Amino acid sequence: MHWKSALLSGVFAAIGIGALTGGAAAAGPTCANGTIKVGAVSTITGPADFSEVPKATQAAFDAVNAAGGINGCKIEYTISDDKADPAVAAQAARDLIDNKEAVALVGSGSLLDCAVNAVNYSRKKISSVQGLGVDAACFASPSVAPVNVGPFTLSTAMGYYATNVLKSQKFCAFFIIIGGTQEAYKKGIEDWEKISGQKVHLLDLTLPFQGDLTPYVIKARDAGCDTVLTNQVEPQVVQLIKTVDAQKITGINWLFLAPGYTVQVAKALADTKQPIYVGTEWEPFTETGSAANAQWMADMNTAGRPLTAFSQGGYLAAKMFLKVIEGIDGEVTRESVTKALLEMKPISDPLAGSPYVFGEAKTHSPMRATKVMKLENGAWKVETPEWVVLPDAK
Amino acid sequence: MNSFLTPAIAGLAAGGTYALLGVCAVFTYRLVAVVNFTGAAIGSAGTFALIALTESGYPTFPSVIAGILVGAAVGVLIGFIMTRWFAEANSSTKAAVTAALLVGLIAIGLRLTGGQHPRVMPDLFPGSAFRMAGVEVTIASVLTIGLAVLFTVLSDLFLNRTRIGLHLRALSDRPLAAELIGVKVRLLSLLVWGATGAFTTFALMIIAPQRSPNFMTLSLLVVPALAAALVGLFRSFWLTLAGGILLGVVEGLASSVDSISQYRSAIPFLVILAVLLWSQREARWDEAR
């Protein structure tokens, strides 16, 4: 660097630091002692592991901190494990809110965080930019707005795809109902009925979490379904398709939600000839050449984190949160962050097909777009290069 | 017309599984006097050894043998724990210990096998045997039911007609007395654990491709299997066989009736309750306790 420009940049830097310490005069976010405290309540140990979600949020925050932070403020991020235990989840949230003084929750991914804590979040006037909304409460609370589509809206979207693209006439849905998800899935199907003008041909809410699936695939066949949607997770998707193959059933499209979209499922089902489709929450993570994934992949590779759909959710939650606090004028506190989220304008990101917005509604489900993947010879292929965007139910 | 037959036949696949694992449970109970909750988990361990080997490119047949050996080894290990520390304990303590071991095995198994991610399970007996009432009855289900019947016949003969069988029954009923008259108690027990471990592994290798391929769901097949064993009151192999198949058929039927199908997974518990009530119907309070 030339000595003149070095001197010049030094002067500018000095002015910059002066402006920061000057405080009130500066535009943009400020912080009391150099940090903005943020938390996440996630299921890490226990029956499921969603740790990839907050760890990707962590990676995104680390990248910002390494580049000097937001207007000089470093983000201090705490991930709490709820162990899928309601008591632990409630304690984790209280600790983050009262002791760690978090200004917001970002990038949580949990089996029960929303169900257990959403009411408490509303009471404490803290907001959660959920990285992966799993339970129904994540999409039915004023204090939580997930960056993912979620199983309920995704069910509607897959039905919409079945009607519009696969030209399904006899659309059937089989759901595993755990906890309080029954009403949410029913509403997902009702929304599809309103949008498509069709009636669901067969709706079965008794699909078992474990057990033999032969009676169910026979039921679907004998009812004459041309398309079957289920909300099964990875191993059950494999089991269902193996059972379908054993029963020599043909002529049915098999639709699954985002949990079925993994490399392991594709490998385990490499031999099947069944038409299998899954809906993604975000830009398909297996599309490593896609421009929409480029920034996320670069940041994950720098942080040494694996490229999974979960990590897209955590990363996207971090980006949305950062954009929102960048727009705050003044000190970043729980009040100012919540206010900014309530008043924010929708923000678009290439990772998602819908713009993200928190807003003042009583419930939030801002993400309403999916890309559909089809299984071909043991790998997922993008079936819809354009986003399948769900219209509003009238 | 086929409205009941079809779901009943569809339940046969599950029924064969329950029967086979149930007969194994009765076998273990009659020989070493343990209500074994780890049965299916031992089999799962061997099955996942097979999966690990085939996934890393080893040919199927030697991998099956290796998997069965792993199952036998895990069986012997559990047997060692039971005979070393709990030989003198009463049967409810032993059952509680195996339930605890089951939780441990599932936790370790899920960690080692990659949690909920499905694995590529080689289909040892692919294809369908015949079609009945619109349902393909797979070779695997025919084989499961066939094996259950075979195992029932063999166990009956073995226990009632052979000298080792007699020793083993003595071992289970009066371990101390058996030891005093020179029966090699420890060795025989470990042999039984190893043999049932090997057999359940083979059974699970047949069953697994049609099931949700992860360690926990396979291990929990022990619940309906124990319900089947209870139908035989942990004594009769034939009643256990019938109980297992019936359980599967009832489950199949239940899934065709919407109003009860959401309680389908409760059926094994209802069966357990019904059998207990029936078997205790003439017992007075003091005896029944």
Key phrases:
heterodimer, A: 394 residues, alpha/beta, Rossmann fold, 2 domains, seven-stranded mixed sheet, four-stranded parallel sheet, 40% helix, B: 289 residues, mainly alpha, ABC transporter involved in vitamin B12 uptake, BtuC, two-stranded antiparallel ribbon, 2 strands, globular
Query: Which CATH architecture of the largest domain in chain A would you pick?
Result: 3-Layer(aba) Sandwich
Total number of beta strands of chain B: 2
Strand line-up in the sheet with most strands of chain B: 1-2
CATH T-level fold name of chain B:
ABC transporter involved in vitamin B12 uptake, BtuC
The helix count of chain A comes to 12
CATH architecture tag of chain B: Orthogonal Bundle
Tally of domains of chain A: 2
How many strands appear in the DSSP assignment of chain A?
A: 15
Architecture overview:
- The complex is a heterodimer of chains A (394) and B (289).
- With 394 residues, chain A is of the alpha/beta class.
- Chain A has 2 domains: 25-149 and 289-363, Rossmann fold; 151-280 and 371-389, 3-Layer(aba) Sandwich (Rossmann fold).
- Chain A is 40% helix and 14% strand.
- Chain A contains 12 helices and 15 strands.
- Chain A has helices at residues 3-22, 52-66, 86-99, 113-123, 150-164, 182-196, 214-222, 234-246, 263-268, 291-303, 309-326, 334-343; strands at residues 29-30, 35-42, 74-81, 104-106, 128-129, 171-174, 202-204, 227-230, 253-256, 276-279, 330-331, 369-370, 372-376, 379-382, 388-389.
- A 7-stranded mixed beta sheet of chain A has the order 7-6-8-9-10-13-14. A 4-stranded parallel beta sheet of chain A has the order 3-2-4-5, sandwiched between helices.
- In chain A, helix 2 (52-66) links the parallel strand 2 and strand 3.
- In chain A, helix 2 (52-66) crosses helix 11 (309-326).
- The radius of gyration of chain A is 23 Å and the shape is globular.
- The model of chain A is unreliable at 6-25 (pLDDT under 50).
- Chain B is mainly α.
- In chain B, strands 1-2 form a two-stranded antiparallel ribbon.
- Chain B is globular and about 60 Å long.
- Helices cover 72% and strands 3% of the residues of chain B.
- The mean pLDDT of chain B is 85.
- In chain B, helix 2 (12-32) packs across helix 7 (163-173), helix 3 (39-55) packs antiparallel against helix 4 (60-85) and helix 4 packs across helix 9 (185-207).
- Chain B has one domain (5-288): ABC transporter involved in vitamin B12 uptake, BtuC (Orthogonal Bundle), CATH 1.10.3470.
- Chains A and B meet through helix 7, helix 8 and helix 9 of A and helix 1, helix 2, strand 2 and helix 12 of B.
